[in-house]
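ok posting inputs for the P-hydroxybenzoic acid job
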Amino acid sequence: MRTQVAIIGAGPAGLLLGQLLHKQGIDNIILERQTADYVLGRIRAGVIEQVTMDLLDQAGVGARMHADGLIHDGVQICVDGTRHRLSLKDLTGKTVMVYGQTEITKDLMDGRATVGAPTIYSANDVSLHDMFGDRPRVTYSSKGEPREIVCDFIAGCDGFHGVSRQSVPTEAITAYERVYPLGWLGILSDTPPVSDELMYVRHPRGFALCSMRSPTRSRYYIQCSLADDVAAWPDQRFWDALKPRLDEQAQAALVTGPSIEKSIAPLRSFVAEPMRFGRLFLAGDAAHIVPPTGAKGLNLAASDVQYLSHALVEHYVEKSDAGLDRYSERALKRIWKAERFSWWMTMTLHRISDNAFDHQLQLAELDYLFRSKSAAAAFAENYVGLPY
Ligand code: APR
Ligand code: PHB
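and the output
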C-alpha cells in the first residue's frame, strides 16, 4: 500500500491529524494496535481549551461538542475547607469546555468513517523502517497477514508506550522526566456534580478534584499511593475519603452513588526532544506526558497536531519544508510551558511530602494566587491555554 502520511495510533492525536490532513486532500492511513471499542473504553480528562475547540471545528467534528459540552467561565480551588473562585472569563476573556475525551475520540472516529478515510484496527507488530531515508515504510500484520505501507512521512501518535519513539536510536533522543510519588484514583458516577464548575482541592489529607461529564454525571479523583490497588477501594471507602477534603457547602451537596468506572493513574512529567527524526514526527503522548492536574494532555496533543498538519500542508501545497523544519522547536516551546504549569499545579495542590515547610509554601502560593490579580491572571492564562 502507498499513502502520503502513515499515522501510528488512533488516539485523539492520530485521529485529529488524520482528519485535518484529509480535509486538505492529503492521503493518510491510521494503524491502531487495539480495536475501536477498546480505544473508546478508555476514560480520560475532559477540559478543552478554546484553541482545541477551534481545531475540532476545523476538522469538522465539533457539532456534538457544541451541543453537549459545558462551557465553564471559571474554576474553583478549595484550600483546607475554604473555596475560592477564579473567573477565567474576567481574567482572560476566554472560557474552557468540559467535554470528555472519550466523546471527542468518538466524534473523530465518526468523522473519519463519514469521509471514508482508512483506519486499520488490531494492527499487530507495527514496525517503522527507513525514517531517515526518502521512502519510509511501516510494516505490520493484520488478521495474521504481513502488510507494508510505503509513505512520505510517518506521524508517531501512538502514546507514551507506543513503538514510534522506541524506534528512534536512543542516542538521538534526550528524555526529561519527573515521576511523582503518587497517583490519582478516579471514579465516574451517575450523580449530579457538587458544583457547576470544576473544583480542585488542596487538603492536609491530600488532593481531590470534583469534575463532571454532564449535569447528571460526575467525575471525582483523590490522591492515592502508587502502591494502592483499585480492588482495595470499594465505593464507600472512596466517598469517605473524598468528603472530608471538601468545603462544607460541597460536603452538603455531595451525592454519592455506585461507580461506573474506577481506575488509578500514575502522575508523570515527561518530554522527549526533539520531536522529529528524519521523516518521523512524534505528536501527543508519544513525545510528552503531563500530570493530569492542569488538564493539558489532550490540549497539547491538539497543539502538536495543529503545527504538524500546517507543516505538512505547507510541504504538499506550497512546496516549502519550513514548517516541517521548525515543527519540533515550535511544538516544544508550548509543551514546556504546559509542563511547567502542570508541574506547578501538581506541586501546589498535592500532599507530596510530610515537610511542614513545603506545606507552608503551598499555602503561600495559593494565598498569593487568590489575592494578586496578576497571579490570578497568569494562572487563568495558562489554564485556558496559551496561544499557538
Ligand atoms: N501500534 C499501533 N498503535 C499503537 C501502538 C502500536 N505499537 N502503541 C500504541 N498504539 C495506540 C494506542 O492503542 C492508542 O490508541 O496509539 C494510541 C495512542 O493514543 P493516546 O494514548 O490517547 O495518545 P494521544 O493520541 O497522543 O492522546 C493524547 O490522550 O492519553 C491521553 O493524556 C493523554 O489526553 C492526552 C491525550
Ligand atoms: C476530568 O474531568 O477528568 C479532569 C478534569 C480536570 C483535570 C483532570 C481531569 O485537571
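notes: The longest helix spans residues 322-349. The pocket of P-hydroxybenzoic acid (ligand 2) is lined by residues 45-47, 198, 209, 211, 219, 292-295 (CB under 6 Å).
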